Amino acid sequence: MKNLIEDIGVFEEHHELAEEPARTTDQNTGKSRKLYIESYGCQMNFSDSEIVASILQHEGFDTTSDLAEADLVFLNTCSIREKAELTVRKRLHHIQGFKKKKPELMVGILGCMAERLKTKLLEEEKIVDLVAGPDAYRDLPKLISQVDEGDKAVNTFLSREETYADVTPVRLNTNGVTAFISIMRGCDNMCSFCVVPFTRGRERSRDPHSIVAEAHDLFDKGFREVTLLGQNVDSYKWSKEENNKAKLEKKGIQKIISFANLLELVAQVHPDLRVRFSTSHPKDITDDVLHTMAKYENICKNIHLPAQSGSSRILELMNRGYTREWYLDKVQSIRNILGSTCSITSDMIAGYCSETEEDHQETLSLMDIVQYDYAYMFAYSERPGTLAAKKHEDDIPLEVKNRRLEEIITKQRQHAHFHHQQDVGTIQRVLIEGESRKNNTQWQGRTSSNHVAVFPKQNKAKGEYVNVLIERCTSGTLIGKIVD
Ligand code: SAH
Ligand code: SF4
Ligand code: F3S
Fold first, then answer.
1. Domains along the chain?
2. Could you tell me how many helices (H) and strands (E) the chain has, helices first?
3. C-alpha 306 – ligand 2 centre gap (Å)
């Protein structure tokens, strides 16, 4: 898993670092039992692990980063591609070694794989004691007691309301500068390739008041950047019918809160609190969101707008709800309202069912037109139960998928390099997030458009904003010096 400091991709499992999960940080408040939690998949899972740690903290668990000293091991899992599930199965085999030495070690599977496989996981993986889906985390104390009493425990009930709005996350793996705030859960789209609607359930938006309060609290604790998370942030909606009107009006919050409204409320928390968000859906992103971004300097100028494919025929089969032309119109609106300095990033799938060479060429040509700053790129992986698995044949041979993926990756590298070169010679405002991983005399941070920059520390500290003159670049990093 790519370092959290560097990556705001909600939909992670980045191809280079997919094998590396984020592990628990140590917490020692003298509690009697130790929880070790590993998170796989998207940022939503990382965020959920912080909810889980919070719920269990009240139940006598401290977190540990050392598997050997754990009483309870949780793997918070992902089902997005077959490989993501295989990684977790391999990890379970490794954990089996620990359980042999310590038979009382409790092993739990959380997240999307738990939701997808339910009790089947208990049959297939004998070392698993507990299975809890993404909406069942409040039930964990009860499930743990069940296991304590010698039973296996399962809860994969999906809720229409649960947002964990009142649970204050325990920040794990934190750099103390950047944090994620989950603003909604689930997904009501039915992209034919995607397992998420089945593992995360129906879409629901979190109370805006609790979101703004969390942002205030983070700012007061020294954090300087928040990323608002949702599978489709543009469909965020808090309405008076669904929610408590009186309470919101008392706080001066409007009756219906759209994503643009929410973004503005969070941007107003403090001018020194940067705001990012992910993921935007091309069919739903509005000009209101773009105008709100233009209005506030502290809303970072980066939009993650996954295209998936450049071919209208494939987009239709994928049930994405837009065409190539619609997508390109959205990109034009971004350029018109925010100019060329707003970076655009994407997700791309190579080798979807029936994809021809012409369809693939359309994906490459779309990339040439948009010139993404960054992209997550994947070979199509059929997921059981999805619309695609039921209706479309996974008919593109693996070697063709991989060849097309390589072509997409090669093109993306060129575009990323181009964008980084454009920054050379400019002065960029960078938020210092921590030490450079390669050189401890240097700081690392990101520009508003989400390009990573490294520069000598001088006398500056983590969490400060600095102006950095970009002197040179690689395809992944800007290199410069502070000119404040
Ligand atoms: N909600 C986000 C995406 C969530 S999943 C959106 O709508 O864009 C993250 C990414 O994983 C997707 O954008 C897609 O590119 C990829 N993905 C999802 N299912 C996949 C599958 N079955 N095979 C390959 N890639 C997949
Ligand atoms: Fe999956 Fe589509 Fe929902 Fe994204 S919008 S999570 S790709 S179903
Ligand atoms: Fe995220 Fe993977 Fe689930 S991408 S929503 S953890 S299937």
1. 4-155 (3.40.50.12160), 175-300 (3.30.750.210), 303-423 (3.30.750.200), 427-483 (2.40.50.140)
2. 15, 21
3. 10
pLDDT tens digits, one per residue of 78-101 = 999 999 999 999 999 999 998 999
Query: Half-sphere exposure (CA, 13 Å, Cβ side) for 157?
Result: 11
Nearest ligand to residue 202 Cα:
2
Report pLDDT digits (tens) over 275-308.
999 999 999 999 999 999 999 999 999 999 999 9
Which of 194, 203, 314, 349 to mutate for ligand 2's pocket (most ligand atoms within 8 Å of CB)? 194
CB-based contact 394:417 (threshold 8 Å):
no
Tokens representing residue 481 in the block: 């010096």
Least confident of 26-30, 102-106, 298-302: 26-30
Regarding the beta carbon of 381 and ligand 1, being less than 6 Å apart is answered: yes
Distance (angstroms) between ligand 1 centre and the Cα of 380 equals: 9
- Between 14 and 67, whose confidence is greater? 67
Kindly state the percentage of the chain with pLDDT values over 90.
88
Atom number of ligand 1 nearest to Cα 194: 19
Question: How far is Cα 376 from Cα 382, in angstroms, rounded to an integer?
Answer: 18
